[in-house]
Amino acid sequence: MSVKVLLVDDEELIRAGLRAIIDAEPDLEVVGEADDGADVLPLVTRLAPDVVLMDVRMPAVDGIQATRHLIDRVAEPPKIIVVTTFENDDYVYDALRAGANGFLLKRARPAEIVRAVRVVVAGDSLLFPDKIRLLAGQRGLEPGRSGLREAGLTDREAEVLRLMATGLSNVEISDRLFVSVQTVKTHVGNVLSKLHARDRTQAVITAYESGFVTPS
Amino acid sequence: MAGVIRAVFGPVGRRLTYRRWTYFVLGATLIVPFALAGFAIVPPVLGMLLPTDTAEQPLVVAVTMALAIVVWAAGTSFIPAVRVVEGTAARELLGPGVPAQASLRATNLEARWKTCQWFLVHIVVGAVVGGCTLFVPIGMLQSFLAPFTGEWLIVQNTPVRVPVGWQSAWIPAVSVVVTVLLVHLVNLAGVGMTKLSQVLLGPTPADHLAELTRRAEQLAERNRLARELHDSVGHALSVVTIQASAAGRVLDADPRFAKRALSAIEESARGALADLDHVLGLLREDQPGTQPQHTLADLEQLLETMRLSGVAVETRITGDLAGVPFAVSTEAYRIVQECLTNALKHAGRVEGAVTVTLSLAASPEALRVEAANPLTGRPPTGRGGRGIPGMRERVAVLRGQIEAGPDDGTWRVRARIPL
């Protein structure tokens, strides 16, 4: 059962390139293409892709709005990877806050592109932790940061969140803490629900913004 | 003790003191022409206007002369170049506290008034310091001989008589003290003037506003260029990267895709180069000039000036000139200006006006500028086309073409700049 990918980009040549790269992988398959954010919702409903590769700037509905629509209106939304030309693009961070699971540069190597798709599908580690840290650092902290005190994380959960922010996968965290992977998964689940986060990316962004983890 | 010596003699040994002194002596020399004019003009004019006994009263003469000097000097200070010279001299001679704005032209009324005040303070303080400079150091030198010769302060061969011998020993001592005091006076006046310069020669609110506007414009322009690079070159290179990656991956499996990818890469790269060329052209165009840049929006004004100078201009304008991009618009303006100026040079040699036919046509693809004027019979002396190499270079940057030369009794300039 291969991973189904939907491509959203207003440039046909970009879609064609991504399609060739992804379709060359035996376990990945491009099931559809859209040239604007406006077409994403019906296609997702019809094709039920596992991953959406989403361009940020598009003529009618941009990638951020389209991401919000998917999160709000689809019961089990697909994983969303925002695809961008420049990493210091303000929109990237906005898209991550809107609920995207990760982002990818258009200049990424083919191996990175397919790895990104696999990482967000597995959901057990963070995509490009260093770049998320950089982006969070550029944004600065939310005013009135509380360091997540009100979230009521246990010491272990706080430790797991810090390790998540560095980009470690569940297996790596379990090695680090000398506990089973299942225990780590439980901790991660607790962290996500206490922070009201959809996934690791959201949780880590919340951790940065609250000052719980410092970007520098 | 050392502190006291430094306080007393410090300014004497400092170079800055003498630079400040020079500035004041400069002020003294600047007042001289006004003073001479006062001496020459005020007494006869007073004699004409007032009864003789009133006109010759020293107080009346002195006050009128002082007023005349101040009024003339104040008037002179409104000449823009005077501000530049005064401010530059102040910056070079008074020390680092003088604001950079001082050597720039005054562009608003407040700055002009303040320049006027500065000029008056400079020449008045300069006159005082200059007067002291004439007498005090010479007086000091003569004071060393006074106890021996009995003569001091020799002005026009009539000295002050002093007793010979030890009774006059105080004279050199006092003279040295007075001279050191003068040095301190000059130094303090310099400090005061430097402080004053921040008030009178610094940027006025209008200058601050103009500077802010300029910066905002620069910033907007930079953002525009960044956006242009992002949208054009960034986008094209993304396509190139992804297509090349994909082609590499499927080269064996799908050679037809690889072939299509190669031509897409070629097209994108070519387009990116053209866009880069355009943006770099804009960057070159944006190098700060010494004059505000005119665009085709100022065309009407230029034509009016030329008409007044004796060039009859027949214009034919088609298309929307206001929609022409800034870089192209400024260049087109320069071309028109150059053509009309050249025609004007020819007009000087013949009877009556010269007629220039000017046509400007803006289409979505390009702006065309064409100017033609009849040759006067005399061959061009070589000065006629002085600006043409420059025009050709700048038009080339904008990816346009320009040709200029004689054509069947007519001097014709034709330019086409793509939009």
Model description:
The complex is a heterodimer of chains A (216) and B (419). Chain A is α/β, with parallel strands linked by helices and 216 residues long. Chain A folds into two domains: 3-122, Rossmann fold; 138-209, Winged helix-like DNA-binding domain superfamily/Winged helix DNA-binding domain (Arc Repressor Mutant, subunit A, Orthogonal Bundle), CATH 1.10.10. Chain A has ten helices and five strands, in the order E-H-E-H-E-H-E-H-E-H-H-H-H-H-H. In chain A, strand 3, helix 3 (63-73) and strand 4 (79-84) form a beta-alpha-beta unit. The radius of gyration of chain A is 17 Å and the shape is globular. In chain A, 44% of the residues are buried. The mean pLDDT of chain A is 87. Chain B has twelve helices and seven strands. Chain B has a five-stranded mixed beta sheet with strand order 3-4-5-7-6. In chain B, strands 1-2 form a two-stranded antiparallel ribbon. The chains are: A alpha/beta (216), B alpha+beta (419). The interface between A and B is medium-sized, with 17 and 21 residues.
Main attributes of the structure:
heterodimer, A: 216 residues, alpha/beta, Arc Repressor Mutant, subunit A, 2 domains, 5-stranded parallel beta sheet, 10 helices, B: 419 residues, alpha+beta, Heat Shock Protein 90, 3 domains, 12 helices
CATH H-level name of the largest domain in chain A... which superfamily? Response regulator
Distance between the termini of chain A: 41 Å
* DSSP strand tally of chain A: 5
Helix proportion of chain A: 40-55%
Structural class of chain A: alpha/beta
Supply Rg of chain B: 35 Å
Distance between the termini of chain B: 78 Å
How is the biggest beta sheet of chain A arranged? 5 strands, parallel
Strand line-up of the largest beta sheet of chain A? 2-1-3-4-5
Beta-strand residue fraction of chain B:
5-15%
